[in-house]
Amino acid sequence: MRFLSFPLTLLCMAGLTSMPAHAESHAAHDLPDAARHAAPTTGQRWATDVPLREGMRGVRAAVDALGHYEHGHMGPEQAVVLAEKIEGHVHDIIANCKLAPDADTALHAIIVPLMQNAGELKRAPHKLEAIPPLREAMSQYARQFDDPGVLSAE
Questions:
Q1: How far apart are CA 89 and CA 84, in angstroms?
Q2: What are phi and psi of 45, to 5 degrees?
Q3: pTM assigned to the model
Q4: CB of 152 closer than 8 Å to CB of 142
């Protein structure tokens, strides 16, 4: 992403999944208030580009598949693979997506929780509480970004 802020760029480059758990829990709180609550002021959703749409569709598919894990229809190894897919899609978005600065800021509030919770699920697949925040991040994306291929989970 062309407009990533320097601290978030460093976090993403270092890999949020390698951060200690206590540091991860504070990463989203370190974003400016605008990054956590940014939304278009016109009532419209932010424009997207192809890398963002493709990446978020991949994230959506992995998050949706985690519902099978919550219901006991797949093992923890498969959940870890899905968490790794989420991280991979987010890394692709970071590397290739180019948004306007305000849209980029709004996206930060979505990709940070995706990375935090996917990392948590990878480290401790038995912690199912990492899955609902992934769904919430996807719902936030659907509310804030113009991407008809990613529907809100609400």
A1: 9
A2: -95, 155
A3: 0.74
A4: yes
Residues composing the chain: 154
For residue 109 the two structure tokens come to 């509030």
Alpha helices in 71-100 (DSSP H): 76-96
User: Helix, strand or coil for residue 85?
Assistant: helix
φ/ψ region of 72 (left if φ > 0, alpha if ψ in -120 to 50, else beta) reads left
Integer Cα distance of 68 and 64 in angstroms: 8
* DSSP H or E segment with residue 142: helix 131-144
Q: How far is CA 59 from each of CA 1, 23, 143, rounded to the nearest angstrom?
A: 17, 23, 16
Nearest CA-CA partner of 93 in 138, 33, 51: 51
Model confidence pLDDT, tens digit, residues 117-126 = 999 999 999 9
CA distance 107 to 11: 15
